[in-house]
Predict the structure of TIGR03086 family protein.
Amino acid sequence: MATESDTGAELRTFDAVMSAVDLVALNAQAVRTSIDLVDHATNADLSKPTPCADWTLHGLLTHMIAQHYGFAAASRGDGNPDLWKSRPLGADPVRSYRDAAEHVIAAFAEPGVLDRKFPLPEFSTDFQFSGTQALSFHFIDYVVHSWDVAKTLGLAVHFDAELLDAALPVAQIVPGGDTRVAPGAAFGPVVPSSSTDRLDQIVAMLGRSPEWPR
């Protein structure tokens, strides 16, 4: 069983690895991809199932919006858990999503964001994360959630090789075990996959079947 010291050492190693990539730019690319995909959604699509267990597209979008506002607040040192709560999509769900996504992109683009400490109450109430760790968490979410939205809407999603190369070690460090089957878990157990496609490999590591909905 990993100790708190082991986890701290692992995260420090992870920070060193991720320092070689432009996380701010790559995260913005992933989030903008999600915007482009959500732009195709209609009100009729909101009731469609998604690769996220028990979530329709409506539920997924409310989750994504809450995450954007929560992470943006954390980048300013605000750890109020109320800021992570879901909010109504409103009359124009696509606009609501775009506004939230642009908000977090702008927050992460502020000078020195990677040097800050982020309170992330959805991850831990006892520990603050480095900017590199926090942006990595958000980044992998929006690689995977872009894929989720694309699958839901029957669209293709494309990321360049640099982005996927950066996303792979983030996916690999996501804890496994019982955390993957707990209620409300962000990611399910690893799905066996023989695919050689890098995005397929990443989503399978994080509990999605690359062949969803099969």
